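Hi! If you just cloned this repository, the fastest way to understand the data is to look at a raw example. We've pasted two of them here, unedited. The first protein comes first, obviously.
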Amino acid sequence: MTPDTPRPLADDALVIAGQTYRSRLLTGTGKFTGLEQTRLATEAAGAQIVTVAIRRTNIGQQPGEPNLLDVLPPDRYTILPNTAGCYTADEAVRTCRLARELLDGHALVKLEVLGDQKTLYPDVVETLKAAETLVADGFQVMVYTSDDPILAKRLEQIGCVAVMPLAAPIGSGLGVQNKYNLLEIVENATVPIIVDAGVGTASDAAIAMELGCDGVLMNTAIAGARDPVLMAHAMKLAVEAGRAAFKAGRIPRKRFASASSPIDGLVA
């Protein structure tokens, strides 16, 4: 590549609720050993959107306590408040309204309403109810959901600005378990589809991107790694590689070999 050659995918931006982002890797801020490790891992990931559990993380509601915004300032990162730990639509709506107050009218939120404490699988009925209320209240809703294509389309129709199907249960590290459902969701979507939950390592992130997903959100896969900062860097590269491979277009799968240098036409 010469100095004059354009950087691959340089103009391939992620657009959410009218805002443009270079990075397609979104990261969480929980489970790290402290704020400094959170900062270093976020920087290594190249993330521009960072999600924050309002019910667990201090962003100003606890004066005098360490504040996440001191290391991840809103003028550098898009803070994405989430409703982690909520099990009803009412809880989730109240949490989003608290986040809007704490962040001076911030409207972009990540909605998740859990249905089970063991699996942390989403309660889709309560999720739909909360999404309808939040959209009507002026929020820009990025919504965590199951990998059900019908539900994903319904959440888009409600007005969610991004739909975030799981790859596998939260924190499981199992990777993409149902490629075909994700493909169906991606192929029928007109809003960004961001895989949320279940990624374990870099190859999982690359697979999600190769399927055509618009981004990946992760926390445990980075924070729980032996070296979180190095894993964050690996995930950054994986998301970029997976996106480039999707845009480039893979070769068809075949049962038999196809020589790189065909022998047809060779002189005997």
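Ok, and the second one:
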Amino acid sequence: MSTRQKPDILDRQVVAHSRLFKIEQVHLKFSNQVERVYERMAGSSRGAVMVVPMLGEQLLLAREYAAGTDNYELGFPKGLIDPGEDGITAANRELQEEIGYKAAHLTLLKELSLAPGYFSSKMQIFLAQDLTPSQLEGDEPEPIEVEPWALADWEKLLEDPDFTESRSVSALFLALKYLKL
């Protein structure tokens, strides 16, 4: 952990706001007296989860439409932590909503940030094991395709042109490390 003094926030104001995003302008003064104005996207203080579900020796991936890339992306189930939930509860809910399973065992692998220079959001990555069928209704506009993938073929997954999301790639490596593969 760094022992450096964090910069002083001299001013902070919202410069743009939409249904999903809030952009803040932050005026900072660093310990060497240099001042800068940064823009950042303020995230939800609730956080988010991503889950690496394992059914036996298979990973269960979700294929769903991603508006940002205008493509059907292959990745792990994910979503926001709802008010009143903790990460484990949200992870199990997302599993049931997106792939139709619940987990008897959820292990927190790591909390990640995405582009911390611009985003304040955090995502908890979980490994889900001992899955049993259980479906909850989600908020997705169309059913998500569930694609089983043999854990032994994880290197081929990295080559799949639809498996590109950096958080899913990171989650895969965290799971492999945890499983000592």
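That's it. A detail worth noticing about the second one: The first strand starts at residue 8 and ends at 17.
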